[in-house]
């Protein structure tokens, strides 16, 4: 644009630029006053005289006033604009009010070995002790400085369960921090007097046992324990089956325990975006600032002490309750929780931990049964894998185990030979060894597959006589398929009929 100072007029530059002289004059005035020529032009609005009143009402309502109600008030005092103009003005007034009243937070910079946090979250549904699906809970804890996380699945959130989870968590940390921060639950805070939280005496006793002081967050202030909230959110997003994570449902509580152990291993060996290091490597540094763990767990609220007997059971109230394998001779604590019996074991003292004992060592719930009466033991079949008795009490079919060459040669024919041996033994057939040798000789003449199929048919039909196997093989060699054979059942009869007997017993017959 031509400089208007040289022409001492705005008309010439306006003609050269193709704009109105007023535009040239306005830009020259903005330049002389130091204003930015790129700034938007603010023109007077119809609602400008009413803006002080709008800001007053927004301040009085703490930023909650509705724009439609405020528009009605403005119309009473002379505003003639539409509601859309009022809504825009109220939105800007609320934005300015919130900017002046927005809460700010100081980053929580903690020291090594000082703080840990824990919280609860709802877990997935898992088949319970009775077979029905039940809701589970996820105990989520993290060490603030190293960001090391621990997730433990439980059936409830009672005080004994809380103490056992704290013990397992501290043993996973390898030490005890100075403070623990959690929510205001009845298991931790039993009352509030003048805004001061009153601790549960057993929580205080457990904290004294471990050298840990339990604190609760400020009510309605989740930011004071945001780390544990984030741990719960991340754990639920990965462990609870949803359409987003494509995780299938869990078949047992032990499977959920294993999934939690895998989740903890993944998040603790992954580089954290805040520290640039893995939580596991940070934990190695923080362990030097943690207090040492007591050798024995706190068992004040865990129940009565028992010893797991040789039949994998514990006795409570003159009733035997089963426990998982690998705990024979270990100390267990049992307690009644409503109408259920809870069995807790210190896994750190188990000499050899089986595969189902995944997760952190320490106090852990290993079994939960419905309470029973004397003379009615409660035995969970899944605690005895490979037992010869099925879940419904019926005996399982025997598994043939050859002990000599003749038996190995017969059982090598295939599954039909195994079925024939089991059914023939159950039917009390005679000369079984002779018939087995004859079947091996016949397989060498015909074929192994043909003889094995014939043995399966013989076992199904219950034919164990001397020439039954040869008869079946010859019958099949003539081309008759098993599907073409007539099988006697209740819908067929070989009798010609009963119409001749319809008048039997009537007079004149």
Automatic annotation (TrEMBL):
Entry-linked SUPFAM superfamilies: Ribonuclease H-like
GO biological process: DNA integration
The Integrase catalytic domain, residue ranges: 103-287
InterPro entries referenced in this protein's UniProt entry, alphabetically: Integrase_cat-core (IPR001584), IstA-like_C (IPR054353), RNaseH-like_sf (IPR012337), RNaseH_sf (IPR036397)
Any Pfam family: Mu-transpos_C_2
Residue segments, region Disordered: 371-404
GO MF annotation list: nucleic acid binding
Highest taxon listed in the record's lineage: Bacteria
Family the entry assigns: Belongs to the transposase IS21/IS408/IS1162 family.
NCBIfam families to which the protein is assigned, alphabetical: transpos_IS21
Protein name, entry field: IS21 family transposase
Annotated source species: Streptomyces sp. NBC_00119
